């Protein structure tokens, strides 16, 4: 699809990767960029229309879908990560449920609500922001990884369901990015701007899967190997 003249809704567009996406979409000539966020008060970015949208609140999602009926590109970006010490600690279950409610169920809710407009408007796309963690897990990020695997699986099923439509279904996999979500991790990080540029190039090229960085490419390439990276992943501090 062409981003120039497209009408896009980005979830979680008030900060982090979502804000970088929304800015890049404006710069690439999108006709309208709806910036979805939980609290639009005080948000003022050139070329964007702030829209209240909370992934946990079906009424806010329905209202956003009603208001943004001209959307032809849905960018499911909003997500959360909570870090764990041990997968064996029952105290982690509440965080796991919160991550599934946002990353998996939230993405499903938004996609279901916006699907009628996307199918009606055509020549568009759905891009789900996944992670290298869809394919690799460690105790620190176990439930986050599971929620991203679930979101990856949903993306794959959605692609099959929409295969005869004019809506590209794509998922992007990426390693650590320099946003609030990773501020406590001492690891090499990509810039949000570089990630967004590769992702949007992938959408314009019609790619059903966009593997952004070398780490994600190496993990994907190893999945069928006897010594797949997920069997003994490198340390993260
Ligand atoms: N950073 C990384 O290393 C990395 C790597 C791979 C994938 N990702 C994925 O990239 C996406 C964006 O993450 P980020 O790094 O930009 O994180 P971030 O800086 O923490 O931003 C998260 C965004 O999601 C929004 N959000 C959270 N819960 C929401 C809800 N219930 N309803 C609506 N919006 C909600 C936040 O809004 P509030 O301001 O209201 O909290 C914020 O805009 C996520 O899906 C994440 O899993 C990140």
What labels describe this entry?
single chain; 237 residues; alpha/beta; Rossmann fold; seven-stranded parallel sheet; globular; binds NADP nicotinamide-adenine-dinucleotide phosphate
Count of the domains: 1
Q: Would you tell me the structural class of the helices and strands?
A: alpha/beta
Sketch the topology as an H/E string, one letter per element: EHEEHEHEHEHEH
Mean pLDDT: 97
The main sheet orders its strands as 3-2-1-4-5-6-7
Radius of gyration, whole Å: 17 Å
Tally of strands: 7
| Strand residue percentage | 5-15%
Percent helix, as a range, is 25-40%
Looking at the structure, what is the overall shape? globular
CATH architecture descriptor = 3-Layer(aba) Sandwich
Distance between the termini: 39 Å
CATH class: Alpha Beta
Largest sheet: 7 strands, parallel
Task: Give a list of the ligands.
Answer: NADP nicotinamide-adenine-dinucleotide phosphate
CATH fold call = Rossmann fold
Number of helices: 6
**Low-confidence parts, pLDDT < 50 over ≥5 residues?**
none
CATH homology group: NAD(P)-binding Rossmann-like Domain
Report what the structure shows.
With 237 residues, the protein is an alpha/beta fold. The chain is 39% helix and 15% strand. A seven-stranded parallel β-sheet has the order 3-2-1-4-5-6-7, with helices on both faces. Helix 1 crosses helix 5, helix 2 runs parallel beside helix 3 and helix 3 runs parallel beside helix 4. The model has no long low-confidence stretch (mean pLDDT 97). NADP nicotinamide-adenine-dinucleotide phosphate binds next to helix 1 and helix 3. The site of NADP nicotinamide-adenine-dinucleotide phosphate (NAP) has 27 residues, from helix 1 and helix 3. Belongs to the short-chain dehydrogenases/reductases (SDR) family. This is SDR family oxidoreductase.
